[in-house]
Specification:
Helix content is 39%, strand content 14%. It has 307 residues and is of the alpha/beta class. Bound molecules: nicotinamide-adenine-dinucleotide (NAD). The site of nicotinamide-adenine-dinucleotide has 33 residues, from helix 1, helix 4 and strand 6.
Length: 307
């Protein structure tokens, strides 16, 4: 199958934070394959201060110069998400694909992190994604079609020094995606999360040049385009993607230990079994995908006598 088969003619995509970095590569790729693109970016600094129309305007100009269709939007996803949706509706009539990509950094050690550094970062990444998705949701439901890609981060999956705010927001986006995947399923709304690493102003001062040169953001956009396409059936998944690597992340639960009712339920009993609780044995580990997967635990424990 030719890669050009994956086209987006008559599809409308909103991409937040698309004035630079990763979002810009998404905007150019979707537009090159026929999508009508809302290029949102408030044009602020890495920490979120200031505004400028320039970043979004330049991306729209580049798309139009290539023969594509795009509209610029300069609204802040936190304070005016309605304006972003309005740009899509006024220009293109609806929205089919939402890429929640806008983000800021306010890094500091946890000991020094201010409350505002925490809440500002959570506001842009997590609340901003929530607000805009909430506005797009009725359109997705009514047209029985929607694709959402949320931008998580390896920092959210694993934690990272100096990023307590950012990692909390990013793992929050994983939880949001997993729930939207379930609630959107019967409406053909697919919601997935990516955890990328790429060269951008977010990473250019953190990583050495020899690593940065391998981390083109163009190596992330193909997965985002695929997840945004009608042929994608997967939902509620998390993908780690960097430098040409594409992999899926999933939850793994250890085989665990079942205490019988006549065992003593004491901290010392936990101490005695703690090594066993931590064993990830290929034969007994599970990969739960929903809350109901706890039924397996209830079923097993209910085989024991009632305590
Ligand atoms: P970037 O700074 O180049 O892009 C982020 C864009 O979001 C900027 O253009 C900025 O102006 C815009 N923005 C910020 N706050 C906004 C707001 N309130 N409303 C509208 N626009 C806003 O950085 P990037 O690396 O391209 O980051 C894109 C996304 O990828 C972010 O969510 C980031 O956290 C995530 N991410 C990036 C990496 C990486 O290695 N670059 C790693 C993990 C996750």
């Amino acid at each position: 199958m030719s890669t050009d088969t994956l086209r987006f003619d008559n599809k409308v995509v909103i991409i937040t934070g698309a004035g630079g970095g990763l979002g810009k590569t998404y905007a150019l790729l979707f537009a090159s394959r026929g999508a009508k693109v809302v290029v949102n970016d408030l044009g602020g600094s890495l920490a979120g201060s200031g505004t400028s129309n320039k970043a979004a305007d330049l991306v729209v100009k580049e798309i139009e110069a290539n023969g594509g269709i795009a509209a610029a939007n300069y609204d802040n996803i936190v304070t005016n998400p309605d304006g972003i949706l309005k740009t899509a509706i006024d220009n293109f009539g609806t929205v089919h694909i939402l890429i929640n990509n806008a983000g800021i950094l306010k890094d500091s050690s946890f000991a020094k992190m201010s409350e505002s550094a925490f809440s500002d970062v959570v506001a842009v990444h997590l609340e901003g994604s929530f607000k805009l998705t909430k506005l797009c949701w009725p359109y997705f439901r009514n047209q029985n079609y929607g694709r959402i890609i949320n931008t998580a981060s390896p920092a959210g999956l694993y934690g990272n020094f100096g990023q307590a705010n950012y990692s909390a927001a990013k793992l929050g986006l994983v939880g949001l995606s997993e729930t939207l995947a379930k609630e959107g399923f019967k409406y053909n709304i697919k919601c997935n999360a990516i955890a990328p690493i790429a060269r951008s102003r977010m990473t250019e001062n953190l990583l050495p040049p020899n690593i940065l040169e391998k981390l083109s953001p163009n190596k992330i956009s193909p997965l985002v385009a695929y997840l945004g396409h009608s042929s994608n059936e997967i939902t509620g998944a998390i993908f780690e993607v960097a430098a040409g690597f594409f992999g899926q992340i999933r939850w793994e639960r250890s085989g665990g230990v079942y205490f019988k009712p006549n065992d003593s339920f004491t901290p010392e009993a936990i101490l005695n079994k703690f090594k066993d609780i931590l064993i990830f044995d290929a034969g007994t580990t599970q990969h739960p995908k929903m809350l109901n997967d706890y039924n397996k635990i209830y079923e097993t424990t209910s085989k024991f006598e009632k305590d």
